[in-house]
Amino acid sequence: MDIDQYSKLDNPVWYALNETHQAFSRGSGDIRAYVSDVAPFVGFENQNGPADLDDGYIADLDSFFIVGTKPLLPGHIWAELELKCLQMVCLNPVEMEISEEIVPLTERHNQELVDLVNLVQPGLFREKTRLMGQYYGIFKDGKLVSITGERIKMNDFTEVSAVITHPDYVGKGLAKQLVAHVTNNILAQGSVPYLHVLDTNERAIGLYEKLGYVSRRNITFWKVNNLMLG
User: What residues make up the domain containing 16?
Assistant: First the structure.
């Protein structure tokens, strides 16, 4: 299947909040947000038009992320950070041997999961982010040292996210095995796995390409602040 048929991936937050993740959705009309303790993302039905953020749940958020095209924002909403990424998809199962024990993470692992993500990649992972999908981990010396999971999910697409390894365990192939495991699980469920990676992270891009991921498009994560609240 031609990967450019996947137009929902141009606006993943909006479609996730109107499909698989409706239970986490707040807001109304053409703007929706994840519950703040689940994820910091806001989605817009029309990414090319003006965005009215003055009413309801979203007006009370002091900051959030937009994925994709940034709509015309009100003057008090200021874009603080622009993360330029590649959006990649995988259409075929990954063929590789899994030598590590990969553990499905549950509620009892949540604090370890949150702590590891925020040690390496602070800002995007919240106390209830784990509820967005299934997360998996590898344990060494009695502690969680590497994780990968599912984040922004639509009916037909599931994002592979939180590809994190503790700095003391980098270079041992743990993340590669986790990404392969999660990718194959998503494909087995009949969904298409996709992910986002900084376009300057050549090492990660190379790893994903070896696993069979291909670049679909460039896409930007915008962190914006509400100056009236911040």
Answer: 3-85+220-226
Q: How far apart are CA 182 and CA 148, in angstroms?
A: 7
CB neighbour class for 193 (10 Å; exposed up to 12, middle 13-18, buried from 19): buried
Angle at the Cα of 111 from the Cα atoms of 62 and 128, rounded to 5 degrees: 45
Q: Which pLDDT score is estimated for 230?
A: 54
Number of independent structural domains in the chain: 2
Neighbours of 200 (CB within 10 A): 11
| Cα distance between residue 203 and residue 225, in whole Å | 31
CATH number at residue 127: 3.40.630.30
Q: Distance between CA 136 and CA 48 in Å, rounded?
A: 36
Nearest Cα residue to 151 out of 128, 180, 173:
128
Decide: pTM greater than 0.85: yes
